[in-house]
């Protein structure tokens, strides 16, 4: 029987909320959090109280009766590496999110926001396919120096959701396909999906892969090292902001909005055009890398995220990659449905919720 589920998705600049009855979305709403407001909070976790207050206001505005809820699900954050799936929010998870064991990101708030509402409703709280889903094959874990291991940090929820959607279009199972999924949003992650596992993907938060609207992607290492030593007063948090937040389009053109860049190009701005083309070029190269990971046997290349709304971006990217395999364009994201889907399967007893144990998930094979 279909279940009533509240899904909560805290992002860098917004919190999305959706109520589902079974597969039907009763309503979806979004709260914007202006950068000027978020800047007041030293740590992401400090935003919890304010975001939760606004969330409760949205629930009141939509006259959501908490007694009707049968489960609450939030976006999963930067925990220790873990297998894909639906997890019940637990103490170990909350402790690791507060300790920021894998870093700081708005998704760290999802478990807390879901649990608060779930407790009021007397039901369980879950997360689904968090950003630390780790299915890397062994060969992909080597960084090039034994001091550092590559980490799988990416848009797992949306990548897997759109990959499943394309599998349905192809009338095949996700678990039997070889897909490249490019999540092209404020941050960019491009994954090689081999038989339902993301065996390689650029770490979208720690300076790997193409530059994006607000992230640097990979940089010349020695130059960044020298820069960091000269800018020590910025500290770790300040320097990380150069990579995530103040990189990419923001760094080159002062905006994270591709629509603004396109407007500048339309007025003949050559700098905007060069930066646009460079972002397309870097995305294409990363798709090429994952094509090699899949040894050229590719059932589809899926373009998703906000940039995939741009016809010009998709067309120019197509000139580089079309020869690699069939293109599927899934603009935007399907995260709210994916959160609901994960919670529904557990609540309907089709799947058992997984337990988060912290470091050392036995399903994740480290070097
Ligand atoms: N119709 C559109 N045309 C061009 N770019 C778009 C369009 N819609 C959204 N974008 C761009 O997509 C990016 C945001 O993607 P999105 O997936 O919403 O990011 P996030 O969820 O990471 O904030 C922004 O640069 C935005 O300007
Ligand atoms: C890869 C971690 C998740 C992430 O970067 O999400 P956003 O692009 O939504 O910030």
TrEMBL record:
<dbReference type="InterPro" id="IPR011245">
    <property type="entry name" value="Butyrate_kin"/>
</dbReference>
<dbReference type="GO" id="GO:0047761">
    <property type="term" value="F:butyrate kinase activity"/>
</dbReference>
<dbReference type="GO" id="GO:0005737">
    <property type="term" value="C:cytoplasm"/>
</dbReference>
<dbReference type="InterPro" id="IPR023865">
    <property type="entry name" value="Aliphatic_acid_kinase_CS"/>
</dbReference>
<keyword id="KW-0547">Nucleotide-binding</keyword>
<keyword id="KW-0067">ATP-binding</keyword>
<keyword id="KW-0418">Kinase</keyword>
<dbReference type="Pfam" id="PF00871">
    <property type="entry name" value="Acetate_kinase"/>
</dbReference>
<protein>
    <recommendedName>
        <fullName>Probable butyrate kinase</fullName>
        <ecNumber>2.7.2.7</ecNumber>
    </recommendedName>
</protein>
<keyword id="KW-0808">Transferase</keyword>
<dbReference type="InterPro" id="IPR043129">
    <property type="entry name" value="ATPase_NBD"/>
</dbReference>
<comment type="similarity">
    <text>Belongs to the acetokinase family.</text>
</comment>
<dbReference type="GO" id="GO:0008776">
    <property type="term" value="F:acetate kinase activity"/>
</dbReference>
<dbReference type="GO" id="GO:0005524">
    <property type="term" value="F:ATP binding"/>
</dbReference>
<dbReference type="GO" id="GO:0006083">
    <property type="term" value="P:acetate metabolic process"/>
</dbReference>
<dbReference type="InterPro" id="IPR000890">
    <property type="entry name" value="Aliphatic_acid_kin_short-chain"/>
</dbReference>
<keyword id="KW-0963">Cytoplasm</keyword>
């Amino acid at each position: 029987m279909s279940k009533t589920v509240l899904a909560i998705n805290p992002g860098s600049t917004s919190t999305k909320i959706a109520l589902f009855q079974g597969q039907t979305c009763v309503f979806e709403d979004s709260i914007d959090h202006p950068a000027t407001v978020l800047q007041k909070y030293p740590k992401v976790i400090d935003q919890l109280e304010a975001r939760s207050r606004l969330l409760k206001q949205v629930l009141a505005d939509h006259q959501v009766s908490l007694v009707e809820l049968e489960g609450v699900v939030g976006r999963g954050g930067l925990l220790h590496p873990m297998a894909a799936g639906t997890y019940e929010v637990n103490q170990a998870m909350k402790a690791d999110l507060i300790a920021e064991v894998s870093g700081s990101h708005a998704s760290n708030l999802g478990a807390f926001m879901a649990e608060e509402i779930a407790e009021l409703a007397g039901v369980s709280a879950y997360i689904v396919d968090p950003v630390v889903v780790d299915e890397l094959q062994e060969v992909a874990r080597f960084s090039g120096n034994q001091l550092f291991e590559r980490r799988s940090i990416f848009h797992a929820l949306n990548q897997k959701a759109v990959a499943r959607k394309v599998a349905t279009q192809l009338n095949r199972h996700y678990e039997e396909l070889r897909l490249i999924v490019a999540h092209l949003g404020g941050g960019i992650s491009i994954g090689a999906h081999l038989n339902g596992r993301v065996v390689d993907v650029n770490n979208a938060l720690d300076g790997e892969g193409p530059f994006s609207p607000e992230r640097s992607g990979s940089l010349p290492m020695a130059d960044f090292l020298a820069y960091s030593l000269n800018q020590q007063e910025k500290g770790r948090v300040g320097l990380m902001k150069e990579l995530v937040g103040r990189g990419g389009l923001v760094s080159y053109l002062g905006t994270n909005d591709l629509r603004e860049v396109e407007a500048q190009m339309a007025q003949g701005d050559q700098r905007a055009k060069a930066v646009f083309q460079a972002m397309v070029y870097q995305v294409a190269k990363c798709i090429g890398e994952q094509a090699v990971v899949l040894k050229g046997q590719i059932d589809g290349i899926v373009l998703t995220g906000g940039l995939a709304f741009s016809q010009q971006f998709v067309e120019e990217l197509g000139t580089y990659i079309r020869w690699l395999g069939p293109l599927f364009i899934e603009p935007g994201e399907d995260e709210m449905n994916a959160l609901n889907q994960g919670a529904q399967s557990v609540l309907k007893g089709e799947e058992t919720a997984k337990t988060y144990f912290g470091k050392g998930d036995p399903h994740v094979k480290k070097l």
